[in-house]
# Entry
Amino acid sequence: MSLRELTKSVELDGKSLNILQPISLDVNASETIAIVGASGSGKSTLLSIIAGLDTPSTGEVYLKHQPLHQLNEEQRSAVRAKYVGFIFQQFLLVNSLTALENVMLPAELANIPNAEQKARELLAQVALADRADHYPSQLSGGEQQRVAIARAFISQPDILFADEPTGNLDTRTGLHIAELLFDMNKKFGTTLVLVTHDPKLAARCQRQVVMDSGQLTESSAESYDNQASDLANVAQVS
Ligand SMILES: Nc1ncnc2c1ncn2[C@@H]1O[C@H](COP(=O)(O)OP(=O)(O)OP(=O)(O)O)[C@@H](O)[C@H]1O
Ligand SMILES: [Mg+2]
# Structure
């Protein structure tokens, strides 16, 4: 995945507001990378552009060598269905579908065979086999996020985008979900692009970049080490 001088600006009250300054970034296959930074710094905007949900104002974005900036909505949607999985802070399950049907949905949209069998296997991997027929409203936040993780992996995405996946969960459930996310990621060899406010979660990624007022900077190895050792300390304490 590759970004070249990507920018985003929007029109607001007749004025142009720059949300993302020119951003260039390369992410290797199977790499795990965290995007951290203050609220409003542009993390979600950047993620939605890299994932092909939104388009840049200028610059280039390549996902699996596909030039997303040159593709129309329909073509981007095809690229997403083939290569991309998402996990959001608000889970975003379809309320009228059961857990099983939610997990099956991306596979059905992408015409992947044996969707039900795969969905049941994934639900088992997130320890929700016995909740397959439950609707989102019958599941706790942590359970809904586990369904969302199962759903994200069903199309065996090359790249997984996660925007604050533990943001709406208590600390303990959040840690559990993070564990599951990194486990599944390792198992499937997926590239992970993770947006988070949580330094401990970010420190679990191989690389961290910081968004600051729409600008992206690579964080130093030192702060990575510090955070990694903080995490080790926390792990020892708890
Ligand atoms: N369509 C839009 N129109 C106007 N402003 C927008 C639009 N989309 C985003 N913004 C602004 O761009 C900035 C970046 O928003 P973004 O959601 O990317 O931040 P974020 O880093 O994800 O924040 P948070 O951590 O709170 O989720 C914010 O100031 C936001 O108000
Ligand atoms: Mg955001």
About this structure: Residues 43-44, 163 surround magnesium ion (ligand 2) (CB under 6 Å).
